[in-house]
Amino acid sequence: MKQFIAFVKKEFYHIWRDKQTLLILFGMPIAQIMIFGFALTNEVKNAKIAILNPSKDIASATLTQRIDASRYFDVLKNLQSQSQIEAAFQEGKIKLAVIFPQDFNASLLHNNTATIQFIADASDPNIATTLTSYASAIVQDYQEEMKGANTLPYTIQTDTRMLYNPQLKGAYNFVPGVMAMILLLVCTLMTSIAIVREKERGTMEILLASPLQPIVVILAKAIPYLVLSMVNIASILLLSVFVLELPIEGSLPLLIGESILFTITSLSLGLLISSITASQQVAMMISLVGMFLPTLMFSGFMFPIESMPVPLQVISNIVPAKWYFYIVKAVMIKGLGIGAIWKETLILSGMTVFLLGLSIKKYKIRLA
Amino acid sequence: MPSVVVENISKSFTAEKKKVLALGDISFDVAKGALFGVIGPDGAGKTTLFRILTTLILADKGKVEIDGFDVVKEYKDIRKRIGYMPGKFSLYQDLTVEENLEFFATIFNTTIKENYSLIKEIYQQIEPFKDRRAGKLSGGMKQKLALSCALIHRPSILFLDEPTTGVDAVSRKEFWHMLKQLQKEGITILVSTPYMDEAALCDTVALIQNGKFLSIDTPEGTVSLFKKPLWAVKSDNMYKLQQDLKQFEGMASIYPFGEYYHLSLNRDSILQEDISAYLTSKVHQGLEINPIKAGIEDVFMELMKSTDD
Fold first, then answer.
1. What pLDDT is recorded for position A142?
2. What does pTM read for this prediction?
3. Beta strand pairing status for B82-85 and B157-161?
4. Would the CB atoms of B107 and A14 count as touching at under 8 Å?
5. N or C: which end of chain A has fewer CB within 10 A?
6. Smallest CA–CA separation between B90 and chain A, in Å?
C-alpha cells in the first residue's frame, strides 16, 4: 500500500511539473465548451439573402420586410433582373434568393394564387434545406393572417413541440459529446503516454527490476488521471449549467457515477495501448487515430448513427463513447434514471472488465 | 554458494531480418562478495548479459541463478534482492534528488533512514542539492544519485552497467573507491565497463568481445596471459613509423596506444638495439623505444586477434 501511495505521489509530481501539458489538460475542456458553445454551431443565424421584387406592391413589400426582420435572414441586396441572380450566387455572398413575380399582389387577389421562388445555394445541403423551410414558414404565417375570417373548408394544422430542448440549442447535443471526447483524450491518450514514457526514458528498466507488482504500476498510473478527469467533468458541467444555461435534468450522482465508469473504460484502453507500443509517438497516433476519430464519427455526436449503412452501425457498437454519449444524453437531458440506461451501463462495464483484464495480462513483466 | 551462476547462456536478436548473436554460450560464476568486472568494447554484449542477469530479458538457452534463484521461474525473489543501475541514466528527471531516493526506497519496501548508513558516504556528496531536479544535476552527481537509488534497499548483489561511461576521470576514480567500500559491506558487485584501465580494480575480470568471453581471470592472471615481449615505440613521424614497423621482421602485432605504438614481437631474442637500428635505417627522428609490461588492453588486443584468426 505504501508503494502504491508513493507511486501515485510520483505521478502527480510528473503531471504537476509539466506545466504545458497541465495547461492543455485543464484548458482543453473549457476551450472546447466555449468553442462549441459560441463559435461552432449548426444553427443558422443571419444568413445573407438577395431579393428580386419587380412588382413592388404591398404584399411583396410586407413579406420582404418580415423576412429581413427575422433573425435567420439578412437581406444583403435587392436584385434588379433575373440575370443578376446567378452572378449573386457566384460571388458566394448569398445563400438564398427570394424571387417575386410581376404583379404579385394582383395575382394573389384576383386569381387567389401567386408563386414565390426560393433559390438556395445547395452546396451545403443542410443549410439550404433549413433556410428554405424557415422562409416557407414566414410565407405560411403571412398567408394565415391574410385569409383572416375567410376560413378554408379543410385545413390541417400541425402542432410541433421540441421535446427536451424547446429552444433547439446545440448545447444539448455537444455537451455530452465534449464530455465523451475529453474523458477519452485525457484518460486514453495521457495514460498511454504516461506508461510509454517510462519505457522511453529507461525508468521502466528499474521499475521492472524492482519488486513492484504490475497491478500496482497500472493502478497507480491510472488514479491521477481519474482525478484529473473528475476535475474536467466538474468544470464541463459547471460551464454548461452556468454559462450555456443547460440544466442537468436527471440525477447528478448517477451522471457522475456513469462518468467514472466511462473514465475507467478509457483508462483501460490507454493502458492497453501503452503495453503494446514502445514509443510516445506511436501511442499518440494509436490513441488519436484509433480512438479519437472513431469517437467523433461513431458516437452519434457529429453524425447520426441511424442514417449510417448497417455495417457501420454494427461497428459503432464497439466504440465505448457511443454508449457513454447515449447515457449522458439520457440522464442529463431527458432526466431518465438507471432503469432506462442499465443495458448501456452493463455494456460499458463489460467493456471495462475486458479491457482492464487484457491490459493487466498484456503488461510485460520483462523488457522484451 | 556463489552469488551468480551462469551456465551456457546464449541470446540472439533479429535486426533487419538478420539474426545477430548477442551472447554465445557464456558460463561463469561470481563468488559472494566479489567485485566482478565485465570488460569489452561497445556492442560486445555487456548490456544484454546484464539484462539477462537482472531478469529483464530471457536468454534463448542456458541457465542463470542469482542467489540460488532461477531468473525465469523465481524472478520475483530476485527482484527483491538485487540493485540495478542501467547504462543510461534512468531516474526521474523531473523529480528532485530527495524525491527520487524516497520513491525508490518506498518501492523496495524500505526507508531512506533504515539504510542510510550504507549510502551515507555517497549521498552526502549530493545532499546539498537534494532539492534540485535530477535532470539538472551534472553527470557525476547523476551517477552518484543513481547508485544511491540502486543501493537504498541494501541489495545483496549490485549490477552496474557501464556506470563510468561519460564520467570525468576524477569522478571515475571516486566511483571505484565507493565500489571498494561497498564490497566491504559484503555486497557482491558486477560491473561492466569499456575502460580497460578499470579492470585492475576488480577481483575478477571477464573480457568480452562479440558476445563471447575471451578470458575470465584475476587482473594479474589476465595480464600474465600476454607472453610476448612488448615495446612502446614513438617517433616524430608516427604514420611512417607504423608503416615501417609493419615491415619489421619479428613483428607479431602493432597498434596505437596513447602517444605510442605498442609493438609485440614473436621472439625474445630481438633486442632494443635491433629495433633502434632498423628504425634509424628508415631515417626516423626523435625515436623512443621502451620495454613495457603488458596491460589489460594489450591482452585484449592479443586475444581478439587470436579469435579473429
1. 86
2. 0.79
3. parallel
4. no
5. N
6. 5
